[in-house]
Write a structure and sequence with these properties.
Length: 196
């Protein structure tokens, strides 16, 4: 299975310089937030595969006006192509906004998912906007990761943790891929192709 993960900025290759058929190879598209409604709708139309998304810290408009044809994974587990995808969008709260959370608020969101996590026997992919604390994040409040994501990864050991928010243009040493235990961690800034 081939997955395209996208986040934060429209990928020039799959949007502005789009060539017919360049999205045909993908079985699934996972969007990690801060992407315009029009871009997500373009992807779902041209790729002919499911687009599953979570919202980023700049995605307040998508709360009331979600992208048509896409699957919102916020605060739930969605199953696409046999993969259980747990969605937890938003970033660490650094100002007012509908898609920003304190550590305590994000931990409460995870606790409310307890019954679903048991029913689905965990999940295969953790799809978020923000990274985990100490794992591809920064010390600034606006780019801090969530500690509760580390707990979630350690407890359920999913195959993939895909996030955005940390632009790889911020620094030359921001990795696109790393690991935490059994989980491959992927920063989907712009785009990343994943084969499983």
């Amino acid at each position: 299975m081939k997955i395209l993960a996208v986040s934060d900025v429209p990928s020039l290759r799959y949007y502005e310089y789009y060539q017919p058929g360049c999205l045909d190879e993908f079985d699934l598209i996972l969007a990690c937030g801060d992407l315009k409604r029009s871009y997500l709708e373009f992807l779902v139309t041209m790729a002919h595969c499911p687009v599953v998304y979570v919202r980023g810290n700049h995605d307040d408009p998508l709360v009331k006006d979600p992208p048509e044809g896409c699957v919102c994974a916020e605060d739930q587990i969605v199953v696409e192509k046999g993969l259980r995808i747990l969605g937890l969008g938003g970033s660490y709260r650094y100002k007012d906004g509908q898609c920003m959370y304190t550590e305590r608020q994000m931990a409460a969101r995870i606790r409310r998912l307890g019954r679903k996590l048991r029913r689905y026997d965990g999940f295969d992919i953790l799809l978020t906007h923000a990274p985990a604390r100490g794992l591809n994040d920064f010390d600034t409040l606006s780019h801090r990761g969530f500690e509760c994501f580390n707990t979630l990864l350690d407890q359920y050991r999913p195959r993939l943790f895909i996030h955005g928010h940390i632009h790889r243009t911020y620094s030359h040493n921001v990795p696109q891929r790393c690991r935490r235990g059994d989980t491959e961690v992927i920063n989907a800034f712009d785009s990343c192709v994943i084969e499983i």
